[in-house]
Amino acid sequence: MTMSNQVMVRGLTRHFGQVAAVTDLSFTVEPGVVTGFLGPNGAGKTTTLRMLLGLVRPTSGTATIGGRRYADLTHPARTVGAVLDASSFHPGRSARNHLRVYGDMIGCSERRIDEVVDLLGMPEFADRPVRGFSTGMRQRLNLATAMLGDPPVLVLDEPGNGLDPEGIAWLRRFLRAMADEGRTVLVSSHVLSEAEQMVDQVLVIRRGRLMSAGPLAGLTGDGSTLEQAFLRLTGGAA
Amino acid sequence: MRRLVKAEFRRLFTTALWRWGPLAAVVCGGVLVGLATLVGPENFEPSMPGVRTEEGVRTVLSLTGLTVIVPALFGATAVTSEYRHKTITFTFLFAPRRQTVLAAKLLTYAVAGAAYGLVVTASAAAGLYGGAALRGVSVGAGPGTVAELLLRLAAAMTVYTMLGVGIGALLRNQTAALAALGLYLYMVEHALALIPGVNLIYPYLPGGATAALTNFNLISQAAAEISVSSARLLPPVLGALVLAAYAVTATALAIGVPMRRDVT
């Protein structure tokens, strides 16, 4: 696996006024596996991912992809595909036109738009305005946008939120396929039962600090569920 | 940059908003000027020279200058809509050098603003000549004078669209942009124009510069009647430069300050 697909966070810290959202966070995410970034709501997951992607400025520390900060990447959207909001679309624009706008920004062909529409199983609703979309359809459009540049790294903030069981199963297969292709997949979640079926590696964060990092089996190897292990780690705070 | 501009044009033309542009332009241009010509400035309160004089022609055409808030709001939407629908997250992910996004928006909306301005002025010309023909009065200004005045108005519309982009980037919220623009253009500036002493800076405010560019302004005329020390407007070219300076300042602020803010 190439170094260029590795996500590296070192001493990452962010304070919002008096509140320390993230404190001295360090971890590495490797390609070829699905890494779960787990923690209760408000643990600092979103702030960490937004710092990794240059949307929020760290108070101190670094977050790099292949050794470079996101903003310094030559082709950011062709290196990292990211989903951060449940729905970040203009309601009046069709899914296909949404993809075309962002495709234009990085020089995607119309063929690539068709490819991601097919990849995410969206041909039936791609030409409809987003305002009528279900949560599952929006999540697919999010992932389609992230996949436009065929990026080797995926960073997804709570992609399972609001999905029905069928949607969760589909998401699990999708993430697995992406990791099997050698991509780096970092996916946050606060729903442990869902994450347990989805991830190989886990990073557990609580109150902005890393509690545990390693293979899922290391946490659940003693026969406990991820939830039990998690509650043990976080002192029942979840 | 070419890619970002292409994306901005697609962004503009893939929602319904732009379809209201030509309609708004015809209302702010043709309908307004046509009605004013039909009524006749000589019947305004206070009475003004009629369209058979050059001053009367300037009066009716310059009414469109009062509608600059429309292109300004249209420009503001370029940025506020992205924050409202959170598409700004994807936009900054796809173009982390945020100033390039804003530059592309300014370029796109300069073209769109100019197109809007041309529809306003073309329909205003139709309103003027059509209204005059209906009333059976001759137009008291040559085609060259009318064309020049209309082009100046179109230039003002273009600059206000770009100003709107800058204000949208600063405020990020459409209601805030509407409130700020409305309060400023229709209250604060008029108030300043009426205060003796303070009104000396009026020629350098956006409204004063617009008035200089279009060579006419209802407010400065009203101010001149009330206040003895009403400041003289700048020459048209200087007025255009002052307006352009506002657009550049708004843009520089938009790039320098809020574009560094966290996107959460």
From TrEMBL, chain A:
- Which protein is depicted? ABC-2 type transport system ATP-binding protein
* Species, as recorded: Streptosporangium canum
| PANTHER family named in the record | ABC TRANSPORTER, ATP-BINDING PROTEIN
Q: Which UniProt keywords apply?
A: ATP-binding, Nucleotide-binding, Transport
> Can you tell me which family this protein belongs to?
Belongs to the ABC transporter superfamily.
Q: Which residue ranges does the record assign to the ABC transporter domain? A: 7-232
Gene Ontology molecular function: ATP binding; ATP hydrolysis activity
Automatic annotation (TrEMBL), chain B:
**Keyword set for this entry?**
Membrane, Transmembrane, Transmembrane helix
Q: Provide the GO MF annotations for this entry.
A: ABC-type transporter activity
Q: Which domain of life is it from?
A: Bacteria
Give GO cellular component annotations, separated by semicolons: plasma membrane
Membrane spanning residue stretches: 20-40, 60-79, 106-129, 149-171, 183-205, 237-257
What name goes with this protein? ABC-2 family transporter protein
